[in-house]
Every structure is written in C-alpha cells, then in structure tokens.
Design brief:
The structure is a single chain. By secondary structure, the protein is an alpha/beta fold. It folds into two domains: 233 residues, Spore Coat Polysaccharide Biosynthesis Protein SpsA, Chain A (Alpha-Beta Complex); 88 residues, HAD superfamily/HAD-like (Rossmann fold), CATH 3.40.50.1000. 28% of the residues lie in helices and 26% in strands. The chain contains eleven helices and 16 strands. The strands form five sheets. A seven-stranded mixed beta sheet has the order 5-4-1-6-11-8-12. Strands 14-15-16 form a three-stranded parallel beta sheet, with no helix packed on it. It is elongated. The mean pLDDT is 91.
C-alpha cells in the first residue's frame, strides 16, 4: 500500500466566505472539529504514515493546529509563496516524497474509499496516475469522466446535468518521478494540464467507488456536512491513533484465546481465538504505536508444556493476527512457577 499522502490545504474559496470567514477551507468547523481533522484521522486509520501538507492561505492557522492536536504526526510542510494552482502545489509537495508513488487528497473533500484497494489498483495497472472516481446520480455540479473497459480514462467532460455518471472525486495515486519530469509552467492546473492532456497516453486510469463522498466547497454542501460527517466521528476519531506514542500490552489466555480448563494449552490445535479478537487487534494496530503480548506460562516451568511447542503456538498466533490486518511487535512469556517471582506479571520484571 502507498503510505505517503499529500494533502492540498492551501486554498481560499470565496464561495464559502459567507459562512466561514478568515480560515483556510480545510479548517472550516464541522460538528465541532475542523474538516481537516476528519481527513487526517481517516487516513491514519487506513495506514498512512507520512503526511505532506501543501499550504498557502493562512498557513499559520493549520501549522498551529497540527502542532497542538497532532504533535506526533509524521509531517512535511511546503508553503506556497503565491498561489501555484493545483499542479504547482502538487509538484512542490512531490519534492518531499520519499517513495515512488504518493496519494493526493484535497483538504476540502472526504471520500471514504479503501486506500489499500486503490493502491493495489494503481500498482496493478502500472498507471502514471490513478483517479478515484465516484459514481453519482442526478448531478450537474461536477464534470463527468469516461473510462474504457480496461479502466483507462478516455475523456473529461464539461459540467452538465446527468442522470447517472462518474466524477473525479479528487483522490489520486501518482508516480512521482515521471510527473516531475514534465516541463510545466510555475503555475498550472493539475486537472487541465496534466490529467486532461495525458489521456492520449493511456496511462491515466480510473477506479470507481460508491462510498460516502462530500465536498464542502459550497455553502449548501458545507451545511450537509454538519449532519453527515458526525456519522464518521466514532469511526475516525479514536481517542488514540498511531503516532500518539502509546503502547498496548495484552494478556494471552482469557483475553486473546480461550483458557484450557484445569490445565495448559500445550499444542497449537488446542489454541482457540475468542470471537472478535482478530478484528479487535486490527483496530488496535491503527491506534497504538506498539502492541505486546505478555503471558505467564508456568506449564513450561513445571515440565508440562514443551517450550518449543509454546514458541510454535506463538508464531502461529502472530501469523493469524497479522494475516487479519493486526500487528504484534513481540510476545513475552515467563515460565517461572512461583507467584512471588518478579518476572511473572503483574510484577515489574516482565
């Protein structure tokens, strides 16, 4: 999956000035939180590890907010000295990208797509650029996009009323080095000068999604966001998130797996996960920087459980957890028999 993201957050849209004054669009309050906060938390939740913010108008407001609310976020900042258009802003931010590909988001739109699926699509197609497309009904605010059966973007159409169609939802996966080789002017539109002019190369691909989408660029849709975005509050506003500096310690028997009544779990075929544990650890992995399992296993000390069998159980357990999207940094166990041993949890030796 692509784990670096550019967020275009430098825009000033006069269409919102009647309801939101003197802040960048992405900082417009939605149900008590800046719109940008929803986007950051959603991307963290899906595995984005590095955020590159392209700022412009009133950048100091965003910088202060990031420092206060996301102090441990892995960020890079670029600030436009003058408005560069979407293309110029993306080109400036691409200088900070370490990998071959980057995901690009508009700071005033929210599209709840699966980023792993989108990244995989981009890599499978070997696309120069992939666009996340939103299926729409009865719309005239956006221009439509046409794609071939092979998902190649063939045309961008002007705005007009359509009963059904697909639109460019403003999320891109971009190959960085080829893009930076283009000889663009200092100020340019990514959509007009890069996307539309390169449909003939057949290297621009589109992936359709039907997930929740909202663009707060006009007052009517900004008002809708006040009632629609809270639905995502619980999903994307965890009290903890990666980069928070927190570590989670989990017991094993009776927490992750069913305990063996009047005995020990000596072999892998005796190990049974509790229902919902794999799904829960996947959620924890998005919220904690590290997860460790700590467990007392005095069955080894008593000669009932073979230590190599115990290690085999733990290897299989971690493999199952990681296969379900979770993560365990390490499993620690104590084989001491006596409760007084300083190495047995909950004593400090563990």
């Amino acid at each position: 999956m692509i784990t670096e993201a550019i967020i275009l957050a430098g825009g000033l849209d006069t269409r919102l000035r009647s309801v939101v004054a003197d802040v960048p669009k992405c900082m417009a309050p939605v149900s008590g939180k800046p719109f940008l906060a929803y986007l950051i938390n959603a991307l963290q939740n899906q595995g984005i590890e590095k955020f590159i913010f392209s700022l412009g108008y009133k950048s100091e407001i965003i910088l202060q907010y990031l420092a206060n609310e996301f102090p441990n976020l892995n960020t890079q900042i670029v600030v436009e000295k003058e408005p560069l258009g979407t293309g110029g802003a993306i080109r400036l931010a691409c200088e900070k990208v370490a990998g071959d590909d980057v995901l690009i988001f508009n700071g005033d739109t929210f599209f709840d797509i699966n980023l792993k699926t989108f990244s995989a699509f981009h890599h499978t197609q070997n696309a120069a650029c992939s666009i996340a497309l939103k299926t729409m009904q009865q719309f005239d605010r956006y221009g439509s996009v046409e794609i071939s059966e092979e998902h190649i973007v063939t045309a961008f159409n002007e705005k007009k009323f359509l009963q059904n169609g697909i639109i460019n939802a403003g999320i891109y996966a971009l190959k960085v080095k080829p893009f930076l080789k283009f000889d663009f002017p200092a100020i340019f539109s990514f959509e007009k000068m890069y996307l539309e002019k390169n449909t003939v190369t057949h290297k621009i691909y589109g992936k359709q999604f039907a997930d929740f989408f909202i663009d707060i660029g006009i007052p009517e849709d900004y008002d809708k966001a006040q009632t629609q975005m809270p639905v995502f509050y619980k999903k994307y506003f965890p009290k903890l998130s990666k980069g928070s500096g927190y570590t989670l310690f989990l017991d094993r028997d009776g927490v992750i797996n069913h305990e063996q009544k009047d005995g020990y779990i000596n072999h892998w075929n005796e190990f049974k996960f509790y229902d919902g544990v794999l799904e829960a650890i996947k959620i924890f992995a998005a919220k904690f920087d590290h997860i460790f399992i700590v467990t007392n296993q005095r069955g080894v000390g008593r000669g009932i459980t073979n230590e190599e069998d115990l290690k085999h159980i733990h290897r299989n357990m971690v493999e199952k957890i990681m296969g379900a999207g979770g993560n365990i940094d390490k499993v620690y166990y104590c084989t001491d028999i006596e409760d007084s041993s300083p190495n047995r949890k909950p004593n400090t030796g563990m």
